[in-house]
Amino acid sequence: MGPAGVFLLMVLEGIGLPFPSEVIMVFAGFLSTGNLGLFTLYVLSGSIGGFVGNLLLYYISVYGGRPLILFIGKYVGLREEHLVRTEKWFDAKGEWTVFFGRFVPGFRSYMSIPAGVSKMNVVKFSIFTFTGSLIWSTALAAGGYVLGKSWDTLVPIIEKIGLFLLAIFIVAFFIYFLYRWYAKRRNTEKSESADKS
User: Fold this and answer.
1) Other C-beta atoms within 10 Å of 71: how many?
2) Domain ranges of the chain
3) Is 171 in contact with 34 (CB distance < 8 Å)?
4) What ranges in the chain are assigned the alpha helix state H?
5) Contact, 95 vs 8, CB < 8 A?
6) From CA 165, how far away is CA 148, in angstroms rounded?
7) Which 3 state secondary structure label does DSSP give 158?
């Protein structure tokens, strides 16, 4: 697998197809062991590929909206609950989720959808997406580069870390949701008390 193959696979992952970057980039790092020039080429190919895939999904979301995404999603494994969960996370946490979501499984490939549907500024989207993709691709490839032939031992570790991060994000979202609900209820009670007096 050469840099062009890595680029193509990362484009496919970026548009939401089940091509895990954890395997692609760690394996690319292994293939470049001992050759920093090739390592750099693989990292750039993966980063640009991830960015291009995410940008394509962003524009599909801008012009096709939610109905088109759900229609396409039927054929690539994207279910409505995935989309709803991602949209809620984006609405609650804002545009920075485009950057941070790049490191979280279950969100990584889909953060472009709410960004596109909400018509997030494309320059800001591009900066967040490429930066996140570059950090993610570099970290994974570096793991494969350092481990060499033992590269495959890194994949389950990354998956466990990813699941841990996902759990933290879900708990944080739940706490935030409860806080907003409590604050809204308290404001309603205050306004009702004021009306009675």
Assistant:
1) 10
2) 3-154
3) no
4) 3-14, 21-31, 36-76, 80-93, 97-100, 112-117, 122-147, 154-196
5) no
6) 26
7) helix
| Distance from C-alpha of 52 to C-alpha of 69, rounded to nearest angstrom | 17
In whole angstroms, what is the distance from residue 2 CA to residue 67 CA?
36
Please report the pLDDT score of residue 78 as a whole number: 65
pTM above 0.70, yes or no: no
Query: Could you give the angle at the alpha carbon of 22 between the alpha carbons of 99 and 153, nearest 5°?
Result: 140
Helices 21-31 and 36-76 pack at an angle, to 10 degrees, of 160
Residue 172 in contact with residue 100, Cβ under 8 Å? no
| DSSP per-residue codes, 19-76 | --HHHHHHHHHHHTTT-HHHHHHHHHHHHHHHHHHHHHHHHHHHHHHHHHHHHHHHHH
At 55 the pLDDT is: 92
Question: How far is Cα 45 from Cα 57, in angstroms, rounded to an integer?
Answer: 18
